[in-house]
Description:
260 residues, alpha/beta, seven-stranded mixed β-sheet, three-stranded mixed β-sheet
Amino acid sequence: MKTKESLLNDLKAAGINPRGTLFVHSSVKSVGQCENGADTILDALIEYMHDGLLVLPTHTWEYVTWEKFDENGAPTSDKNIFDHANMPSCVGALSNVFMKREGVIRSLHPTHSVAALGKDAADFVAGEELTQTPCPRNGCYGKLYDRDAQILFLGCPLTKNTYIHGVEEWNNIPNRLTEKQHQIFIKRGDDLLPCPQYRHHFAGGNVSDNYIKAEPIFIERGAATYCKIGDAHSILTGAVKMADITSEILQKDPDYFGTL
């Protein structure tokens, strides 16, 4: 049975900086049986990062699509409306529990929102309603680089590495975004804020399935280390090193992730 205390010990042993910025992709089941399920994992993460910034993805790309509009440009369906306060995350149980915790602030990105708690959380999530792509350099994913954040893949593989989507965007890799923007709205109270977006698109399927091919390189060059949190075999990465190595690879071979 995993406890908050045992998980705190594991986070420390992993080498996570408690005063830095930690971004967590997660698989709750992989951690093993915990006293209070996902809440125990969150309790440990929140306590450990008390003096830093804890960030989890709360993406909604699976739920937010694009639909037709009436003659006044208003949406005729709620499928292209991001309901900031109520729409659940499509990227795991932990993210859905986390964004409801006291003090957590969710960003306004209509498809790739994140939730943050701790030091500078409001500044970190600010401005996402002004984005036009899933992971722009001046958005939250770019801020992970600016803050030299650590990214923890808690019991999940690098195929879940949204950050590399961002690095591909920043390097202007072709065949990664839709050719045209799609109109999406952000619901805030009674207001609908238009936020047109280019969406992720890869003609060969799901490009993130191929991100795992860079794992040996990240390990060899010190951008990632293996660790264990509870029962979860995990990977801890550094945002700056991982982005710089990825950019180096992409400059030599722009379609490096086009195939496995």
